[in-house]
Design a protein that fits this description.
It holds the Pfam family FAA_hydrolase. The protein is α+β, with helices and mostly antiparallel strands. The protein contains six helices and 13 strands. The protein is 22% helix and 34% strand. The longest helix is centred in the first third of the chain and has 17 residues. The relative contact order is 0.24.
Length: 236
């Protein structure tokens, strides 16, 4: 872990490392397509000793179509989380309320996020995971997009299955009690660095359940109330 070698690393420095890592990806031709939130449950924040979530960057190379199949061997130890995703309808910066943040959203869909970690057995400190882009390595968006005003966004049922067997059930309420609160928190954290969200960007609001380890041959399905199905396959 980074903190084992440099124990004095701060959270701000971890975000600087994250940005430096992203800059190298952009130099290779990837583009920024959005952001993801992590530690969006109160229990997880308490466990990590923080009072706010963390965030990472999403790039064009992380984007997968619904029904895509990934190669397990391309990852260290991939896991998958059920998510709610926002599509930004306009630029957003400053310190918005959740209601104000939601008004900048043009669409909502279900999503699966693939998380992976450079750290053995997913064991890390807060500083380490932030430096590692909050473990984000890929995501799949559902094709059923709805305007947030048409949904009871604060309590959408979510069921994730692997190979036809239910492995996790949850609700969008697990994401900071309402996904819009996660979106507003992200904008405030970006604003502290003089940044914001852009029209068309994707925001993954946070995992609604614990992550599930992926194995070769797995077929993952997420059903989100009102937002349909999202699928991901895993090859060897």
């Amino acid at each position: 872990m980074l903190t084992a070698e440099i124990p004095e690393l701060t959270l701000d420095e971890a975000y600087t490392i994250q940005r430096a890592s992203m800059a190298r990806r952009f130099e290779r031709g990837e583009s920024l397509v959005g952001m993801k939130m992590g530690l969006t449950s109160r229990a997880k924040m308490e466990q990590m000793g923080v009072h706010e979530p963390i965030y990472g960057h999403l790039t064009s190379a992380m984007t997968l179509p619904d029904g895509a199949t990934i190669a397990h061997g391309d990852y260290c130890h991939p896991r998958v989380e059920p998510e709610i995703a926002f599509i930004m309808g306009e630029d957003l910066s400053g310190t918005p309320t959740p209601q104000e943040a939601l008004r900048a959203v043009s669409g909502v869909c279900g999503a699966l996020e693939i998380i992976d970690s450079r750290y053995k057995d997913f064991k890390f400190t807060l500083i380490d995971v932030v430096a590692d882009n909050a473990s984000s390595t890929g995501y799949v968006l559902g094709t059923k997009l709805k305007h947030p005003a048409t949904l009871e966004l604060g309590n959408l049922g979510m069921v994730m299955s692997v190979n036809g067997q239910v492995v996790e059930t949850g609700s969008s309420a697990a994401i900071l009690e309402h996904p819009a609160r996660s979106l507003a928190a992200l904008v405030k954290m970006l604003n502290a660095r003089g940044e914001g969200l852009k029209k068309g960007q994707v925001v993954l609001a946070g995992g609604a359940t614990k992550a599930v380890a992926l194995k070769p041959g797995d077929q993952v399905t997420l059903e989100v109330e009102g937002l349909g199905r999202v699928e991901l396959g895993v090859a060897g």
